[in-house]
Amino acid sequence: EITAGTSPVSPFMPGDVNSDGAVTLGDAILCMKIITGLSPDVRVNAGNDVDHDGRIGFEELFFILRRTAD
After folding, report:
1. What is the DSSP letter of 18?
2. Tell me: the pLDDT tens digits for 3-39?
3. Which end of the chain is more exposed for a tag (fewer CB within 10 A), N or C?
4. pLDDT category, 70, cuts 50, 70, 90?
5. Rounded CA separation 20/62 (Å)
6. 37: number of Cβ within 10 Å
């Protein structure tokens, strides 16, 4: 679980966990790494969580998968 902190945050884009400007399967993979306890290999923006709880978890993963399936 990654929690929003004091690091610089990009403009709010729900589901854009890696702050690259798009919601992609890469964000879903990053969510799965966080959920399973693996260290993310890129900077994580927990401020882009979809339910505004400041954490990256299952809600974000499901949102990303639904959005990328369209």
Report:
1. T
2. 555 445 556 799 999 999 999 999 999 999 999 999 9
3. C
4. confident
5. 19
6. 7
